[in-house]
Amino acid sequence: MTAKGIQQLVENEIDKLNWKLTPYSLYEPIEYVLSLGGKRIRPVFTLLGCQLFDNTIEKALNPALAIEVFHNFTLLHDDIMDKAEMRRNQPTVHVKWDENRAILSGDAMLIKAYQLLAQCDTTALKSVLDVFSQTSVEVCEGQQYDMEFESRNDVSIDEYINMIRLKTAVLLAGSLKIGAICGGASAEDADLLYRFGIGIGIAFQLKDDYLDVYGDTAKFGKKIGGDICCNKKTFLLLTALKKADPETKAELLRQINANDFDKEEKIKAVSAIYEKLDIRTHTENAMKAYYEDAVQSLKKVSVPDEQKAELSVFAENLLYREN
Amino acid sequence: MTAKGIQQLVENEIDKLNWKLTPYSLYEPIEYVLSLGGKRIRPVFTLLGCQLFDNTIEKALNPALAIEVFHNFTLLHDDIMDKAEMRRNQPTVHVKWDENRAILSGDAMLIKAYQLLAQCDTTALKSVLDVFSQTSVEVCEGQQYDMEFESRNDVSIDEYINMIRLKTAVLLAGSLKIGAICGGASAEDADLLYRFGIGIGIAFQLKDDYLDVYGDTAKFGKKIGGDICCNKKTFLLLTALKKADPETKAELLRQINANDFDKEEKIKAVSAIYEKLDIRTHTENAMKAYYEDAVQSLKKVSVPDEQKAELSVFAENLLYREN
Questions:
Q1: Shortest Cα–Cα distance, B260 to chain A (Å)
Q2: Which of A143, A292, B86, B193 is spaced 20 to 30 Å from B255 by Cα?
Q3: Which residue is closest to A129 within chain B, CA to CA?
Q4: Residues of chain A contacting B134 with CB distance shorter than 8 Å
Q5: Low-confidence residues of chain B: pLDDT under 50
Q6: Chain A residues closer than 8 Å to B147 by CB
């Protein structure tokens, strides 16, 4: 099956999940967040991962849905913690209903993810469950670091990469590994796919950081410079702080620490510093390095190269995306 | 093993769980809530349930710990939703740290519960997982109803019983059933134990309602009349509203709707209405009926009566407790 076909199938299967349960007040927010769409990258990865080793994707379908439900659960709870009011151009759950509803529906959603996961082949169940739980708890660890970084001024690039590995990459990697396990892959191949996912995931998040500054507003969907305005410790900012000479660093810190500023001016000033330090190229190089590492891992997976094309192209497109 | 011995063993095993993980800021609140103690009723039920069918309790140990971790996760998140500041005479997690920490540590705790659960015998894994997830999501449903009842004035006794069945009884029942499955019980016996747990669980919550009015302050640990003061829709209040003649009902509603009142006066007035309507006896009878139903189910379990004594006495003590 093509990635596009799988993406459509995932969309249909998510639509078919039944949330008309009692009390509906608990399940309605779950139905709502899942209906808001998204790229469905993780379940597509799971099914592509399965397809590498098995002719059908059938065996990985429930785990794929479990992962998408889990991912949306993390968005739901993260939005409470980040006090985010909008998600995919719609009000977030704690805004549309209230915070209690968002906490509790999120909890139910996490349990529902496990219920879907448990519907995989019993022979694969223990392994699938172990990868899923390990991945899930690491996503929480990533979120904890992300929140802590907000109030820290000494975050290193290594710490940042570790944070995005946990918050973003492990779930992409886990999605692929779970698919591979369901498809009957060897432990070695499953681990290689996991490593592929880590590389792609880190490169994917670096691209996100990159698009905030170098994206095309019309295509990106978000306003350019949002991360700059709120002093988000992105790869770009941390690299700039590291590479800057004392004078440039002082100017960058002055921009960061300014309490009263004009948004456009700040974006312009910080972008100019990035330009001077060639942060664009540094970020592109870092992305390429993680992507290359990912590609090397995929190469080693013991199935014919032509069978890997669908996954390889899908991952490549994620990195060459403009939104 | 005696229930007392099992209780001590559970306490030791909980102490042995390692929460010195990174980032510790995520795991410290988990360590904290688990260290606050409690009766450990659910894991004791799991181990007693296992012991009924197996000579050892070994096979149910990890699921028992999983259930205790899950139970404390629900308390952690419920305390945020209920804005409770104290739990077991200590500050709640969202007070001691903050709300974000309480949400995220709770999430990690739920996942950790699944990780413990997954360490049971692989032959039992699927069944144990299904009971656990079904039970867990029902506990969320119970909490949702509980919150909704706060702002409703037409809650029926049936609705109330259904709410406490979900919020309290199913976890006791699920604890027993999971223990039974780990111990190798037949599906029929596991279901009988589940039903036993439901009866005990509902009677247990009715006793909680009862102690708020008829408990001995010194033994109860909480102030008498707390439920009356905040108009909590307990079995006692709902029964009084149902049984009262129009005049008494009007007086009871006047007490409930009063915005400005003296706490002691209100407790005295509502207690007097309960006295007049003999709510004490009604509640005792309801408790007895659920307890009797539970006992009948336990009787039908196909193991010799003497082997059931430990469980039967432990459950009985829960209902004759004074705190």
A1: 28
A2: B86
A3: B118
A4: 115
A5: none
A6: 100, 104
Q: Is the ipTM of this complex over 0.85?
A: yes
Chain A residues whose CB is inside 8 A of the B136 CB are 111
Q: Domain B3-319 in CATH: superfamily?
A: Farnesyl Diphosphate Synthase (1.10.600.10)
**pLDDT tens for each residue of A175-212:** 999 999 999 999 999 999 999 999 999 999 999 999 99
Q: Long-range contacts made by residues B212-218, C-beta under 8 angstroms, separation at least 24?
A: B212/B236, B213/B271, B213/B274, B213/B279, B213/B280, B214/B280, B215/B322, B215/B323, B216/B322
Chain B residues lying within 8 Å of A81, measured CB to CB: 100, 103-104
- Cβ contact (<8 Å) for A111 and B144? no
Nearest residue on chain A to B109, alpha-carbon basis: A137
Reported in sequence order, the residue ranges of chain A that DSSP labels E, i.e. its strands, are: 86-87, 90-91
> Nearest-CA distance from A147 to chain B in Å?
9
Do A316 and A48 meet the contact criterion of CB atoms below 8 Å apart?
no
Chain A residues with beta carbon closer than 8 angstroms to that of B81: 100, 103-104
* Record: contact A129-B144, CB cut-off 8 A: no
Instruction: State the DSSP code for B169.
Output: I
Of B77, B115, B125, the CB nearest to A103: B77
| Assigned token pair, A86 | 């909008």
CA distance B299 to B292: 11
Does A122 sit within 8 Å of B111, measured CB to CB?
Answer: no
Region for B231 from its dihedrals, namely left if φ exceeds 0, alpha if ψ lies in -120 to 50, beta otherwise: left
Largest CA distance in chain B: 62
Fold entry, domain A3-317: Farnesyl Diphosphate Synthase (1.10.600)
Phi, psi of B154 (to 5 degrees): -125, 35
Q: How far apart are CA A136 and CA A74, in angstroms?
A: 9
End-to-end CA distance of chain A: 25
Check: CB of residue B191 under 8 Å from CB of residue B301: no
Q: Which residues of A touch B100 (CB under 8 A)?
A: 80-81, 147
A21-34: pLDDT as tens digits: 999 999 999 999 99
For the residues of B190-235, what is the DSSP string, one character each?
HHHHHHHHHHHHHHHHHHHHHHHHHS-HHHHSS-TTHHHHTT---H
Residue with tokens 């093509």, as numbered in its chain: A2
Cα–Cα distance list, A218 to A211, A214, A236, B219, B271 (Å): 12, 12, 22, 67, 67
Residue of A nearest to B81 (CA): A100
With CB atoms and an 8 Å threshold, state whether A141 touches B114: no
Residue A87 DSSP symbol: E
pLDDT tens figures, B263-287? 999 999 999 999 999 999 999 999 9
Task: Choose the closest CB to B108 out of A26, A137, A148.
Answer: A137
Q: Is the pLDDT of residue A37 over 70?
A: yes
Best B75, B93, B114 member to test A by mutation, with max A CBs in 10 Å, is: B114
